Amino acid sequence: MNVKMIAGHELTPGKTIKDHIHVEGTELHVPHVLLCGARPGPTVLISAGIHNAEYVGIQAAIELSNELDVTTLRGNVIILPLANRSGFENRTISRVYEDGKNLNRVFPGDREGSEADRLAHMLFDTRRLSPSATIWAIHLRRKRRSGWWNVST
After folding, report:
1. CATH number at residue 108
2. pLDDT digits 0-9 by tens, 12-38
3. Is the pLDDT confidence value at 150 over 60?
């Protein structure tokens, strides 16, 4: 039987998995939620918190992970609600705390580089988790002091 794995977890229909992905060569861990739909279908990867001060996107990703019902879901949803966890915890606004780099500016990353480079490489490499996945990156942009959504695919 061909077992499908995502982020080291076996996909079990109707199951939700909350865990962390370790960034190889660092002390960094990225929280993720894997929602396995009860029925087959496409896979969607949603990331937020590349810039750790984009609180609205982080909160939206967390709420989405809590509201989706795997019993009615077709396919799989992978949610990375806080990609830049160390920056968030250390309040660096848009930088990875360990090396001061803007995570959004180092993609596709480098598995032998600094913490930000390795984190970007791991996040960029998530495309390989499910080659047919649609990828959404939630960002927030400011225009005249009001928050506007910006979802990149």
Report:
1. 3.40.630.10
2. 999 999 999 999 999 999 999 999 999
3. no
Domain count, the chain: 1
Write phi, then psi, for 124 (nearest 5 degrees).
-65, -35
Domain residues for 103?
5-152
Q: Per-residue DSSP letters for the chain?
A: ----EETTEE--TT-EEEEEEE-TTSS-EEEEEEEE-SEEEEEEEEE--SSTT-HHHHHHHHHHHHH--TTT-EEEEEEES-TTHHHHHTT-TTB-TTT--BGGGSTT--TTS-HHHHHHHHHHHGGGGSTT-EEEEEEEEEETTEEEEEEE-
Integer Cα distance of 70 and 73 in angstroms: 5
Strands 74-80 and 29-36: antiparallel
Rounded mean pLDDT, 5-18: 87
pLDDT interval class at 80 (50, 70, 90):
very high
Backbone φ and ψ for 109, nearest 5 degrees, come out as 85, -175
How high is the pLDDT of residue 1? Answer: 47
